[in-house]
Amino acid sequence: MSAEAPALTPASIRELVGRFYARAREDAELGPVFEAAVQDWDHHLDHIALFWSSALLGVGRFTGSPMIAHRRNPITPQMFDRWLVLWGQTTDEMFPGEIAQALQARAARIGESLKLGLFYNPADYATPAVGRT
Q1: How far apart (Å, rounded) are the C-alpha atoms in residues 83 and 21?
Q2: What's the pLDDT score for residue 72?
Q3: pTM for the complete prediction?
């Protein structure tokens, strides 16, 4: 974390998003997915910053469907775990402990929700009926 940690504002969230995606784009596992999916990085970073500002600060300017956006890409449940590691590193570098931890917890909840929506299939957990013919 820098000596002058930023407060959690739309501007600091935009900076966080920029730093995080710079790291993610260089990542061996996540980078190729992002590079294939994103055509206009400036627009993408601004759009994602609006999402996080909405999720974290209640600034309701985000429009879109994260679930639909993620369905379009060849991602796996394990990629969410890698995403969270990089997010944790970036938030720890930028924010004091309490804020970084809150950002990480929120990202983990959102990631779990996306994983459930993308990969959960109730049939995988169905118990066969016993004694039925």
Answers
A1: 10
A2: 74
A3: 0.82
